[in-house]
Amino acid sequence: MSRPDVSTERRHQILDAAEKVFVRHGFAESTMEQIVEESHLSKGAIYWYFKGKDEIIGASLARMFERSLQDVADQLKSDRPIVERLMTVARCATDQIRNARQLAGVELEAYAMAARSPQMRRRASGYFNAYIDAFAKLIADGIEKGELHPVDPRKAAISGVALFEGLTLLWVVNPDLDFEEVLAHAAGLMLASLLRDAPRPNLFPVVRGDH
Amino acid sequence: MSRPDVSTERRHQILDAAEKVFVRHGFAESTMEQIVEESHLSKGAIYWYFKGKDEIIGASLARMFERSLQDVADQLKSDRPIVERLMTVARCATDQIRNARQLAGVELEAYAMAARSPQMRRRASGYFNAYIDAFAKLIADGIEKGELHPVDPRKAAISGVALFEGLTLLWVVNPDLDFEEVLAHAAGLMLASLLRDAPRPNLFPVVRGDH
Amino acid sequence: MSRPDVSTERRHQILDAAEKVFVRHGFAESTMEQIVEESHLSKGAIYWYFKGKDEIIGASLARMFERSLQDVADQLKSDRPIVERLMTVARCATDQIRNARQLAGVELEAYAMAARSPQMRRRASGYFNAYIDAFAKLIADGIEKGELHPVDPRKAAISGVALFEGLTLLWVVNPDLDFEEVLAHAAGLMLASLLRDAPRPNLFPVVRGDH
Amino acid sequence: MSRPDVSTERRHQILDAAEKVFVRHGFAESTMEQIVEESHLSKGAIYWYFKGKDEIIGASLARMFERSLQDVADQLKSDRPIVERLMTVARCATDQIRNARQLAGVELEAYAMAARSPQMRRRASGYFNAYIDAFAKLIADGIEKGELHPVDPRKAAISGVALFEGLTLLWVVNPDLDFEEVLAHAAGLMLASLLRDAPRPNLFPVVRGDH
DNA sequence: TATGAATGAGTATTCATTCAT
DNA sequence: TATGAATGAATACTCATTCAT
Description:
The structure is a homotetramer. Chain A is mostly helical and about 210 residues long. Helices cover about 75% and strands about 0% of the residues of chain A. Chain A has 2 domains: about 1-50, Homeodomain-like (Arc Repressor Mutant, subunit A), CATH 1.10.10; about 55-195, Tetracycline Repressor, domain 2, CATH 1.10.357. Chains in contact: A-B, C-D.
């Protein structure tokens, strides 16, 4: 009598469509009509699952943030040496951003919205804090194990996250920038003063020619 | 018989108003009506001086970028030791952002737009390149003078700008962040591996109690 | 094998719910969704028993009118003196309207609809005619028995019904109005010129202190 | 330099159009599109002069009420005998309603709305009170002059207004009703018990054959 | 019988832009 | 130059109704 529950599937179907539209047009310029088309559903169906455009934007961002956190946070819990783990995190984040290149612009718009909307600010800062916390734990670990200089782990984490976000920003504005190369250099600079030994770790030792 | 030329004054009057509105509502949500009110001019007057909303956004951003560049670029040409000049640049940028706190969000939205619009991308990357170039020259200078390690000046400059922009982003999202403190720490980390001597320069040595 | 017939029960369940919703929001602003909620049934069930919203409105009004007629018409057939019976009718109608205070607004909307829709007009005028006829018969009876002046019974009945409906209208618009007091006065004025004797019958002789 | 002020003219142009649409479709079923068409203006123009549909409804009703009051209240201040003045009022109201036959339905819908909306209630009861007050004054005048029995003027006025509104209601629902004839009869009944002398005033002595 | 997900035409409202004055 | 009334395309959202299960 009861049909299988398709609500989760539908919600993702809608968010997938919305994400594509947001990437192309930004939040403000995206229309429900476009989301309707892209989702191959009807207007009514969209509104059956979401209260309105704002809720779709919210859910879409939440999903992005979650995905972002998940992917990276996974890399933080391992037993290998700190440098290796930091490198892995960096590469993971890089891979992620390369694969979801388009989303970077959308996230930027979300941060711009955060400048005006307290609600958005709460959401986004929650995301960043989770990110920073995980990162700080990793650094604290490295300090404890004697691999890193005894710095304030949280501040160092903030520096790291800021560096990464800043590079992403530059890269969004100038896609010709070789993201990996620049990240390698920047991270190298920062790590050099954190590491007790190895003065110049190479984050991206394998030279690939595919970009 | 000819009235004095008020066009420059009027254009600034309009852009000043637009800037305020953009800060409050973002580009997309700002209306011409709001700009009209804030400028104490009429709709017709606005359209006399600007083709439309897009042109106002463009002109407004151009002015912001120019101001930004001016303020900081000035600091780059001096004869004092590199560290001092770097510190001055950092402080100058910090002051600037503290004074125009509101504009950070607007700029962020401009970068988000750049992700979609080639025109915007050109404009914004021009701005960043000018910034990076000036910064790179400063670093090259420092290397030449033997004050800095021989690194790729452009890459180092990018790292520096990225760090600054990333911190700004974090701070926009989380205004509770002590911008100066974190910038001092982050810049310290980066400078430490650039400088030949002083392992830990203090960017903000004077402790102020006003925040 | 055949389940008991629940259709009558269901129809009333739906109409009861609809009535509540109509009282709160009027016909036009009431939604099927609200009726669904209030009835604790499903959308499909509602549409199983009624063709659509219009049919529900129709059935709901029919039921209201019937109820109205039933209650009052009962009072018309008795053997007591005319004045007494008129007074009883008035009190009955008053009681009825006091108990279903909310419905007065709904009925008013129905009359407004009648101004535009011939179908509604037919329905509503049928209701009024039944009312007026019964009332006229009562008056004719009074005339025949020599209790009332020989007036046109139908016109007098119309006057009576109009007076009652008009007071209801005023009371809907101004609920602070003491319905009974005003009705007593108005009916008194009218009866005075109908009755052969008693110039000032008191319709509501019992003084209550509860309002 | 400044064009003539057309705002008053435009507002009336819009309200005239709205009134026609309201008469045809009622408030709820009337669309802005229809008002736009009927007014020969553009959507934007409508919204330039009115905030939205609700405001148009409000303004439209206000205008109706005002007109209604104006027309009738004028008749209340004269020096002729009370009966004559009452008759004049009745005829005036009748003429008015005959000329604006269509509006009766709209007013009914307004009263129905008043049942649900306190704001509407305030507006409508204000209208009725003004009406009743004027009427009461007339009656008090008659009593003072010894032309009428000493009754409570306000209650009598309410009775009169109720009678008139009730007849209008019946006539809206059943346009075949001879409004004047019935009003004459009903008013006669009521006046008979108010007047000290003339037992049966004829409100509409001139028999016209045009309806 | 009964469910509730899905449909899509319809609606109020906004807002960049124009243009007669 | 400057005004602000007027335009109308575009947009978010609603809701009666249908239909596969």
